[in-house]
Amino acid sequence: MKITLVEGDITAQRVDVVVNAANSSLLGGGGVDGAIHRRGGPAILAECRQLRASRYGRGLPTGQAVATTAGDLPARWVVHTVGPVWSATEDRSGLLRDCYANSLRVADELGAATVAFPLISAGVYGWPLEDAVRQALAVLRSASPAHVTEARLVLFGAATYAVAERVADAS
For this structure, is 16 an active site residue? Predict the structure, then answer.
């Protein structure tokens, strides 16, 4: 699987799957989650509401992943995953890696060839940027999906992209 770092807007990626750094409610929010729901339109929210009414009445657990339509996004599906909130006193890196692994698994089960990931938990959830990149790359580099041939790590802003590039080159 080819891994590509891209500076840009995840909602503009022309891929089979866009991964959403969702909150557990699956009903939209801020950051990546809000942007995906706004640009993707009401079809995504409608499917998320169905998921809440059936399988995820208490919300999607941290580290897990589930797929919906991509609505108006230039993708076929959105895979929603809930990242952990960073903690200085508790190692939650396993949950962060689970987000990438489970999202990739769901995308592969859908038959997707291309997947765009945001930098999960690195926004309002406070995960340190360099470690967030390291965790993402560790999972993506060790994965061997059956169908996915390209995973993009989409970084918002030149400064974030520069950090990701430096971490990728060093690891």
Answer: no
pLDDT band at 98 (very low <50, low <70, confident <90, very high): very high
Nearest to 117, CA basis, from 30, 26, 2, 18: 18
SS3 content of the chain, % helix, strand, coil (to 5): 40, 20, 40
pLDDT band at 157 (very low <50, low <70, confident <90, very high): very high
Out of 16, 33, 98, 108, the active site residue is 33
Q: Which domains does the chain have, with CATH numbers?
A: 2-170 (3.40.220.10)
Cβ(1)–Cβ(150) below 8 Å: yes
Question: Of 65, 67, 76, 72, whose CA–CA distance to 15 is shortest?
Answer: 76
* Residue 166 pLDDT class (50, 70, 90 cuts): very high
Task: Give the whole-angstrom CA distance, residue 122 versus residue 141.
Answer: 19
* Token pair recorded at residue 151: 């995973």
Q: Which tokens belong to 149? A: 């041939």
